[in-house]
């Protein structure tokens, strides 16, 4: 038994739910590159960031030295409604695959928003409320973040304005209605309600939008209303910090089972669930206490880690946000309307980008139809109907388990099952009807996105 391998004093009495978030940047020898001010090209100051983001969240964003950050009691109380999230051994899947590997998955779909995004939404809404703000604006791609944020805002009595990427707005009307049920105002993006939206519409008539466009609109909207700030559901280091609850719980649950993971796998859009899942394990690796194989899985239609460049880039199409050094396809890259809406961002968390660049993490890209094959296989065997995003991780976890069948290795595989797919049945329908295609951007398309990168070394 590998009991007491972890510092339980940073957990609540239940010994599985953490009382602290873990900040992996504190253990990184080479820190992620700082955010730059788009106006000056210099590292951005807290003061400049506070015009866009909530004060306490800015502090967390810029903190790369504090290892453990206490989770405020109000947030813990909310977490207790749906956490700890279960770490489930996929016995049936193991049996069906005939693998000697043990497969565990951390299931984050057990809340109404249906994904891990609520972990950060509630934290961000809390800090906005604490600062005395009236409301927040945001973008949402597939709709999970918008849903999570509307739930969090209604809990704290904050106004919530969501810019929803147009193709999702049209594909997922029920998501929109869930958000409105929780009191949010939802606008399809690009829209006529902002200057940047009007400009994007003029340049790309008929565009189905992108996260990058929606971010620019949400930032502009926050800046133009008194008592509002902008919040973001992924990519930022603060979001990854909040999502470390996933990894902290997984570490404790594995410890209770007397297990040690060999491979940890997660899907990667902006990197928050993967970053949160692997954070404490990566911490052990960075401190030389244990070793793990980490695998980020991205869609081949939006391959920022596997085909992007590690450079400074704009975080949004309208270039109003700070610049981040990250693996990116260029902020002008508008991905094909893939069904893994939550993985359509052109860039990647700068923390994960740095870890990947140092060779501490691997990345793979997978095609849409093979992802849905894995999703359906998993649903039939393990019962849970997974989100398309999460199914990227399922696909690679199954690949690794099949490898173990061939080599006879008894590895322990852990993957993040980030959410449920009930609002993605249109994509399942396309898959079942044989109408799903595998879009892979050409080298020319990738190069076109890169051509608009800012010139910064
Ligand atoms: C948003 C989302 C993702 C991707 O976002 P990350 O920040 O990379 O974690 C993955 N799965 C689900 C279910 C999502 O909603």
Please give the structural blueprint.
Blueprint: E1 20-22, H1 46-49, H2 55-62, E2 68-70, H3 73-79, E3 87-89, H4 91-97, E4 102-107, H5 118-130, E5 135-140, H6 144-156, E6 159-165, H7 166-171, H8 173-181, E7 185-189, H9 195-203, H10 211-223, E8 228-230, H11 237-242, H12 244-257, E9 263-267, H13 272-286, E10 293-299, H14 304-307, E11 309-314, E12 323-328, H15 350-357, E13 362-366, H16 368-382, H17 388-407, E14 412-417, H18 425-432, H19 443-450
Parallel strand pairs: 4-14, 5-6, 5-8, 6-7, 9-10, 9-14, 10-13
Antiparallel strand pairs: 1-2, 3-4, 11-12
Helix pairs in contact: 3-5, 5-6, 6-8, 9-10, 12-13, 16-17
The structure holds pyridoxal-5'-phosphate.
Question: What would you say about this model in short?
Answer:
The chain has 2 domains: 21-72 and 115-237, Rossmann fold; 84-112 and 243-450, Rossmann fold (3-Layer(aba) Sandwich).
